[in-house]
């Protein structure tokens, strides 16, 4: 150890001497310059030492910050962003954490709202029993206990044109509209110092709600005002059926059924609030329903007459709109559909399934508004008439024209032969037969019948000695004078003159 120390000393000493001698000389010769250089050297030493110290301190400070970034990324379950700046990386991580927290909160709120809706459906008897959270059960128990002493009323809101609503809006849009209506309903009930909670009935069936107001409140007027406000809000026609007041949560299913039944009267009273008192007044009237329009519809469809179909459908709904009760309406409506159903087997087999499906929709939507039903029934009748016409035309071996010729040939001698009788027999409308025959032959059907009769009368005048009166009756005329006048117009001579010319 001592030997190594001596060697190191021997190495450093000359270097020290070589540095000290010039330094002493500079100190003796140029003291100011030496002092300046020393200060510069000292400043450089201090700067380097400071930089080194700053680096060490920065490392010690950054190490916990890096650990914080790594821990934050693990906590949030996210990968740190590819950023050179750890501050930016940490910012991104916290943004992700906030977004996750927001999504989680929204999901929890949505779950809570869903559970409340299901519990309300359970109270109304729409859903079966299941386990609900204590929070939801306690919330509604408290509300119903508070308001039941004033009388709970169940409401069923339905869009008057449900088919249009379902076909126009996507399911998500439907849900958004009904969700907004539910929230507005609850808010409006609260503004009237009352209680209100609504739930979506799904499948386009509308909205069900439970409401209650103070003892002095006019519930019917308040709820009608709320319904009108909701209509203005969504821009759609909305009807509401209201139940009688019940005073226990266990009676809510019965109240819901009553409100649903009352809401069906929107068929005749669209865009209105239908109360139990209103329905009772209608039932007490006991009007007898007459629906002669059903016969007109059936005959028009058989005859394939579009104008007659339109008039028949209009008359039918004018008749049933005066129905006193829903059962009487339903009886008339189903009877008419049953009659039309009997015509479907006469159509082509490839069209029967489509017609049956349309008819099923008419049955299913029997409680839609009369305007909607009238449009749908008219469309069905037109399609049924078109299908019948196509099938009948296809079944005619010689075509429709040949069938007309054969029918006239067989029946020209009958005084009852007319355009109407031919149309009814062939199941076409008189207007269509007239138009069709004129297009095919250039003359009217009645002109052809007269011509056929005149040709036969000419044969009888020439070949027999039958009196003119007898011949007139044989060819289907009942008025001899009228026959003679038409015969002269057709041949240029009277029947008697024509017989004389044939001798």
The CATH homology group name of the largest domain: Reverse transcriptase/Diguanylate cyclase domain
Number of strands: 5
Q: What CATH first level of the largest domain would be assigned?
A: Alpha Beta
What count of structural domains? 4
CATH architecture of the largest domain: 2-Layer Sandwich
Question: How would you describe what is shown here?
Answer:
- The protein is mainly alpha-helical and 503 residues long.
- It has 4 domains: 2-63, no CATH class; 113-285, Alpha-Beta Plaits (2-Layer Sandwich); 293-395; 399-501, Arc Repressor Mutant, subunit A.
- The chain has 21 helices and 5 strands.
- The chain has helices at residues 2-29, 31-76, 86-123, 134-147, 162-168, 171-191, 219-234, 252-263, 276-285, 293-303, 306-320, 326-341, 349-364, 370-395, 399-411, 419-426, 430-441, 445-463, 468-474, 480-491, 495-501, and strands at 153-159, 195-200, 207-212, 238-242, 273-274.
- Helix 1 packs across helix 2, helix 2 packs parallel to helix 3 (86-123) and helix 18 crosses helix 21.
- The relative contact order is 0.05.
Write the layout of secondary structure elements.
Layout: H1 2-29, H2 31-76, H3 86-123, H4 134-147, E1 153-159, H5 162-168, H6 171-191, E2 195-200, E3 207-212, H7 219-234, E4 238-242, H8 252-263, E5 273-274, H9 276-285, H10 293-303, H11 306-320, H12 326-341, H13 349-364, H14 370-395, H15 399-411, H16 419-426, H17 430-441, H18 445-463, H19 468-474, H20 480-491, H21 495-501
Parallel strand pairs: 4-5
Antiparallel strand pairs: 1-3, 1-4, 2-3
Helix pairs in contact: 1-2, 2-3, 6-7, 10-11, 10-12, 10-14, 11-14, 13-14, 18-21
């Amino acid at each position: 150890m001592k030997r190594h120390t001596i060697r190191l000393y021997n190495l450093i000493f000359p270097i020290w001497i070589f540095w000290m001698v010039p330094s002493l000389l500079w100190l003796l010769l140029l003291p100011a310059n030496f002092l300046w250089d020393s200060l510069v050297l000292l400043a450089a030493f201090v700067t380097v030492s400071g930089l080194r110290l700053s680096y060490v301190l920065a490392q010690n400070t950054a190490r916990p910050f890096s650990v914080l970034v790594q821990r934050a990324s693990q906590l949030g379950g996210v990968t740190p962003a590819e950023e050179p700046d750890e501050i930016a990386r940490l910012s991104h991580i916290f943004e992700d954490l906030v977004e996750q927290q927001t999504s989680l909160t929204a999901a929890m709120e949505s779950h809570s709202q869903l559970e409340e809706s299901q519990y309300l459906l359970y109270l109304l008897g729409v859903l079966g029993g299941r386990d609900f959270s204590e929070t939801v059960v306690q919330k509604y128990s408290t509300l119903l206990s508070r308001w039941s002493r004033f009388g709970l009323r169940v409401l069923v809101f339905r869009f008057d044109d449900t088919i249009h609503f379902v076909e126009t809006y996507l399911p998500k849009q439907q849900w958004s509209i009904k969700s907004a209506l539910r929230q507005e309903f609850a808010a409006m009930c609260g503004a009237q110092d009352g209680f209100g909670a609504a739930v979506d009935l799904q499948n386009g069936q509308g909205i069900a709600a439970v409401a209650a107001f103070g003892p002095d409140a006019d519930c019917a007027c308040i709820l009608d005002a709320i319904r009108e406000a909701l209509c203005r809000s969504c821009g759609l026609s909305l009807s509401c059926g209201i139940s009688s007041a019940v005073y226990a949560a266990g009676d809510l299913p019965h109240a819901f059924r009553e409100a649903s039944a009352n809401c069906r009267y929107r068929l005749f009273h669209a865009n209105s609030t239908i109360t139990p008192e209103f329905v009772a007044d209608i039932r007490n009237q006991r009007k007898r329903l007459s629906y002669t329009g059903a016969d007109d519809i059936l005959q028009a469809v058989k005859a394939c007459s579009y104008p007659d179909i339109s008039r028949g459908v209009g008359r039918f709904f004018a008749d049933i709109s005066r129905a006193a009760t829903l059962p009487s309406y339903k009886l008339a409506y189903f009877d008419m559909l049953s009659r039309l159903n009997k015509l479907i087997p006469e159509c082509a087999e490839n069209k029967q399934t489509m017609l049956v499906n349309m008819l099923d929709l008419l049955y299913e939507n029997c409680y839609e508004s009369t305007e909607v039903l009238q449009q749908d029934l008219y469309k069905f009748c037109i399609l049924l008439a078109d299908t019948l016409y196509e099938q009948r035309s296809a079944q005619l071996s010689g075509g429709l024209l040949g069938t007309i010729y054969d029918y006239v040939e067989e029946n020209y001698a009958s005084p009852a032969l007319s355009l109407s009788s031919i149309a009814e027999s062939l199941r076409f409308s008189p207007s269509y037969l007239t138009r069709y025959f004129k297009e095919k032959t250039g003359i009217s059907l009645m002109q052809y019948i007269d011509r056929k009769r005149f040709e036969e009368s000419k044969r009888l005048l020439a070949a027999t000695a039958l009196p003119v009166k007898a011949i007139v009756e044989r060819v289907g005329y009942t008025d001899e004078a009228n026959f003679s006048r038409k015969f002269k117009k057709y041949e240029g001579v009277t029947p008697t003159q024509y017989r004389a010319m044939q001798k």
